[in-house]
Write a structure and sequence with these properties.
alpha+beta; 2 domains; 11 helices; six-stranded antiparallel sheet
Length: 419
């Protein structure tokens, strides 16, 4: 019996000998790549979230030190603001995850081994696209549902916090009319001792008797969730006079207590018109349809917000496809070089998005161009680099590095040895 001649298969870790073996190899490879993408993605999310929160540290410190806002309230405010951060953080984390994963594989010669085994670059693309899809879905949840709900909850919590914490509303050396029928002036607020200094009050709560009260110091206490506050004044004086009468009297006191009330929240304040970021998609579309004839600045802002809810999730695909060929280049095996290029492309994306927002708001060009052009540009660059890499074209991206160095040289440098 004559046996048919056997074909010689290319050597390598994944010999493609049969369709079922090929499918099994692809399945193992895809699971491996997907697991490799998860760790840098999680680290990027944590790191970038920390960076974004650092931008709020001054506000947080001011609320804690000067206004005695509780840590629970601050944690809630940060939690409600997270969707706004995450709709930008997730696409950037997807890009950095793909870039770091394939930089490591390229540095460890895993990409070369896969090519030697007959696996082309396009065989590595499905898990990358699946990962980008997951990132896009997460970003869509943040942009479509998380951002409006977070903004509304943050506004409500901020209103309740200000209402129950008078220190957030009393400004030094200004007249404050937060309390009903009471004009309040405070020269200074001593947060360390929780005291008010140089207090002047005009009390018009009694229509038959107006009082003017002055005291060098006092304390103001309130209970959370209530709108009544206890004011205690020390070593002051009261001048009282009836309207339409020339009679008046002056009193001095060592201690004087007052109960001050804030007006309850009005329905109009709670039901104020929503900002663009607080609107759901049906509300955005309804506003656009109602104001189509009057195309003012808010009309363009609303239209851009609607496009942004879809363009930001799809940025995961544009940035992920761009990061894939950048990571597999042998010339970029140095992580610092590859990460630097990734950051340059993301900054370029963000600058284009910001420019699109500015020009779209001004009506220079249609808002959809400003919101979608960054995705189209980055996606086109990514596809061009991907096809060039698949055909083994040597990619020279040194011009980007040289351009960055040229820009940095324009800034004045500190002389050596200077302190």
């Amino acid at each position: 019996m004559i046996e048919p001649p056997r074909r010689n298969h290319p050597a390598g870790p994944f010999p493609l000998t049969a369709p079922h073996k090929s499918m099994k190899i692809n399945s193992v490879l895809y699971r491996y790549l997907f697991r490799e993408l998860l760790q840098p993605f999680a680290l990027s999310i944590v790191f970038l979230t920390f960076v974004f929160l650092m931008t709020r540290m001054l506000d947080i410190a001011d609320m804690i030190v000067n206004h005695r806002v509780g840590m629970g309230t601050i944690a809630l405010l940060l939690f409600y603001s997270m969707p706004f951060f995450l709709e930008f953080i997730i696409p950037m984390s997807v890009m950095m995850s793909v870039l770091l994963t394939f930089l490591r594989m390229s540095a460890d010669n895993e990409i070369a081994a896969l090519k030697a085994g007959g696996i082309g670059l396009f065989h590595l693309l499905p898990p990358v696209l699946a990962f980008c899809l997951i990132g896009a879905l997460m970003t869509a949840v943040m942009a479509i549902f998380g951002l409006p709900e977070g903004r509304m909850a943050s506004k409500k919590l901020a209103f309740e916090t200000i209402a129950s914490n008078t220190g957030l509303g009393l400004e030094e050396r200004r007249f404050n009319d937060r309390f009903e029928n009471v004009m309040f002036y405070v020269g200074a607020v001593d947060s360390a001792r929780d005291e008010l200094r140089d207090i002047f009050i005009e009390d018009a709560r009694d229509p038959d008797m107006k009082s003017v009260i002055a005291a060098p110091r006092g304390t103001l206490r309130g209970e959370k969730g209530k709108f009544d506050f206890h004011l205690r004044l020390y070593n002051g004086s009261i001048h009282q006079a009836a309207p339409g009468s020339k009679a008046s009297r002056n009193l001095r006191f060592d201690t004087y207590d007052m109960i001050l009330s804030l007006p309850p929240p009005s329905p109009s304040a709670q039901n104020a018109p929503k900002d663009e970021e607080e609107m759901s998609i049906p509300e955005l579309r309804a506003y656009i349809a109602e104001n189509d004839a009057n195309k003012d600045a808010r009309y363009y802002l609303t239209l851009m917000e609607l496009h942004k809810k879809f363009s930001l999730p799809l940025a995961c695909f544009a940035l992920g496809v761009l990061a894939f060929p950048l990571g597999i280049q042998s010339k970029l095996s140095k992580r610092s070089y590859g990460i630097g290029l990734g950051m340059i492309f993301f900054i370029l994306y963000y600058l284009m998005l910001s420019a699109g927002w500015v020009f779209g708001e001004a009506g220079v060009y249609p808002p959809f161009i400003g919101m979608w052009a960054p995705n189209l540009v980055m996606g086109a660059i990514g596809l061009a680099l991907l096809f060039a890499s698949a055909r083994e074209y040597a990619l020279s991206l040194d011009f980007i590095r040289d351009s960055a160095r040229a820009v940095l040289k324009r800034f004045p440098q500190r002389p050596k040895g200077a302190r």
